[in-house]
Amino acid sequence: MVALTVISPHLDDAVLSLGCMLRGSPGATVVTCFGGVPDKAARLADWDRRCGYPDPATAATARRANDAVSVSRVGAQPVHLDLLDCDYRVADDRTRLADLERALAAVVGSAESLWLPVALGRHPDHVLALKAGLAVWRSSHRPPLTLYADLPYASTFGWPRWVINGGRPRLPLAWSRHVLRWRRHEVAMQWSGALATSGVPVHRLTPTVRPVIGSDLVDKLTALEPYSEQTAQLTYGPGGTWTLAQSLEYEAWWTLSG
Ligand SMILES: [Zn+2]
Questions:
Q1: CATH number for the domain harbouring residue 26
Q2: pLDDT digits over 103-114, tens only?
């Protein structure tokens, strides 16, 4: 079986987005881009304060430990790169991208199969992870490439109808006006917009949808427990009206062909 290498922007994204898939592909490696530990004396970010941490170093150290537990629960190995997330960085975007490309070079160089976030939600750290991952992939031996929908951002406005329909029709699904009601259309447009700007040719991407129900959902929520201080702070679904479980109803990814 091919060993998967999943690039996770933060300490939680891979299990949130692909926990169920990872459990079915034991032996994967989850590489977290922004897993660095800031200086203890740095100004505490609002997010870390809301999560109850006294200082940035304590927050990052605890998160790395929590991530190791969560990633092992889905049968994968964690690798934490030492770059700081956007709350603690001072470098400009170009420097950040160059730093991440350098850090990812060795990882991608030995990957048998590379998984990158689409950056749905356009979080700056997710965008950097996608850009740097693609840049390094292009200059490497080009292992099989897959893009994955970032949860919980992917379900912030609900699910596109094609996801609920089990992954049909094929891309470019967002443009089939007669199939989609406006709300679903908007969501699908958001997904297609992210894919269209991902830097990967959309016509060569084949979608896969994995429903996460029953015991799969229970297992996924169990795997996510170590992140509970973060998942308790997030909001889910349209207008923040969903539970965490509702926002995890599907995992979706696109495999690059040819
Ligand atoms: Zn993230």
A1: 3.40.50.10320
A2: 999 888 889 999
pLDDT at 50 over 90: yes
Kindly give the distance from the C-alpha atom of residue 102 to the centroid of ligand 1, in angstroms, as a whole number.
20
Note the pLDDT of residue 90: 80
Gap from CA of 178 to ligand 1 centroid (Å): 34
Q: What is the pLDDT of residue 168?
A: 57
Dihedral sign (CA 221, 31, 25, 136): positive
- Whole-number Å distance, alpha carbon 85 to ligand 1 midpoint, is 9
Distance (angstroms) between ligand 1 centre and the Cα of 28 equals 19
Alpha carbon of 10 to ligand 1 centroid (Å): 5
Distance 35 CA to ligand 1 centre (A): 11
How remote is the CA of residue 13 from the centroid of ligand 1, in Å? 5
Report the number of distinct structural domains present in the chain.
Answer: 1
Cα of 179 to ligand 1 centre, how many Å?
Answer: 32
68 burial (CB, 10 Å; 0-12 / 13-18 / 19+) is middle
pTM for the model stands at 0.91
Residue 206 has pLDDT above 80, yes or no: yes
Q: Write out the residue range of the structural domain in which residue 111 sits.
A: 5-256
- Distance between CA atoms of 246 and 151, rounded to whole angstroms? 11
State the Cα–Cα distance between residues 108 and 202, nearest whole angstrom. Answer: 22
